[in-house]
Amino acid sequence: MDLIQLSRISFKHLTALHVMLSTHSVTQSAEILCMSPSSVSKTLSQLRQLLDDELFYREGTKLIPTSYALKIGPVLHQILNNMNGLLNQSTFKPKDFSGKYSLSMRESTFEIFAPIISDILSTQAPNSHIDIHSKEQLGFDALLNGQVDVILLPHDRSQPPTTEKQLVWETVIEDEMICLMSADHPLVDKELTVEDYLAYKHIGIFDKELNVPYFEQCLAQQYQPRDVAISVADFGSAATLCHHTEFLFTSSKKWAEMASQAKGLVIKPMPFDYGQVVYSMVYNKLSINDQAVSWLCDRIKEK
Fold first, then answer.
1. DNA-binding among the record's keywords (predicted)?
2. Is 251 helix (H, G, I), strand (E, B) or coil?
3. Residue 153: what are its φ and ψ, rounded to 5°?
4. Residues pairing with 65 in the sheet
5. Where are the beta strands (DSSP E) in 238-287?
6. What average pLDDT does the chain have?
7. Do β-strands 277-284 and 150-156 pair in parallel, antiparallel, or remain unpaired?
8. Of 1, 37, 122, 193, which residue is the least packed, with the fewest Cβ within 10 Å?
9. Parallel, antiparallel, or unpaired for β 56-59 and 129-134?
């Protein structure tokens, strides 16, 4: 252990780099840290010399982290999280909490969890602030780096979500899959069969971080792959397309029952075994050291 080298690096350096990895902006980082932009730049300059790496390079108007900076992001998160746990041993009081939570989810997932989030902001922790990010923008890597506290998402329970052992998956809502179609679809007055399901084109939902769902594998192995004409990032976009085409959309039932985009669409039960689907809360094991994040996770599970 190089104690002399370690003595030259302070938590001020590590905190500045941690925030920069989230914002990619000296100005925004300075606002978060209550520092001047010049102080943040000076701190980063010192850290560049100590670590012998540029840490960020400019591409147009953006600051892009180097591969080394991205590599040490999870380690930074662990160090700062452990230190935060040591400094905040008192009982957490949500009504006094004035910090920020960072969540990531699809837009359609927000419709499911909006009542919980509203209750937290209105009554339980009224002085807190919550940032909601798109999962496409900030996914599992963001959890590991500490950019996001919690990810909420629907998924196939048999779908191996990720091999990253640092991430914890907890089911918060049991759900089922249904097939949505327009009100004037030729299949509206018929019982949906596998043959009918496969005869029409489909709207798919892509998620680059999740593996192929069980129902897709089942169809391919026992029947044939479905014909996906278009893939979109969110349930709402898929439902809008459903209104204007004869495409079929395989969706979360809970979302379909409450989403405005799904109003007027016809719901049909799935004509084959599709396994189990759930909404899960995903968080970094280290986050439980943070009493505020631990409290948030408990509230989501309770609701």
1. yes
2. strand
3. -160, 150
4. 56
5. 248-252, 266-269, 277-284
6. 87
7. antiparallel
8. 1
9. unpaired
Residues 6+ apart with CB under 8 A from 80: 11, 14, 15, 18, 146
Q: Which amino acid is at 61?
A: T
In this predicted structure, the answer to whether residue 250 has a pLDDT above a threshold of 90 is yes
pLDDT at 92: 80
How far is residue 247's CA from residue 202's CA, in Å, rounded to a whole number? 5
Buried b (16+ CB within 10 A) or exposed e, 1-18: eeeeeeeeeeeebbbbbb
Q: Please choose, from the candidates 112, 207, 104, the residue with its C-alpha nearest in 3D space to the C-alpha of residue 150.
A: 104
Question: Do the beta carbons of residue 44 and residue 20 sit within 8 Å?
Answer: yes
pLDDT above 90: residue 105: yes
Q: CA 26, 65, 44 angle in degrees (round to 5)?
A: 45
pLDDT at 262: 92
Give the CA-trace dihedral at 277, 279, 282, 288, to 10 degrees. -130
What residues contact residue 94 under an 8 Å CB cut-off, 6+ apart?
124, 125, 128, 295
* 183/175 Cα distance (integer angstroms): 23
In tens, the pLDDT along 1-15 reads 565 666 777 888 888
Domains in the chain, CATH or no CATH each: 3-87 (1.10.10.10), 94-174+279-301 (3.40.190.10), 177-275 (3.40.190.10)
Q: Taking the CB of residue 102, how many other CB atoms lie within 10 A of it?
A: 19
Nearest by Cα to 80 from 26, 147, 1, 151: 147
Question: For residues 266 and 197, is the Cβ–Cβ distance under 8 A?
Answer: no
Nearest to 229 by CA among 200, 207, 256: 200
CB 93 within 8 A of CB 292: no
d(CA 28, CA 33) in angstroms, rounded, equals 9
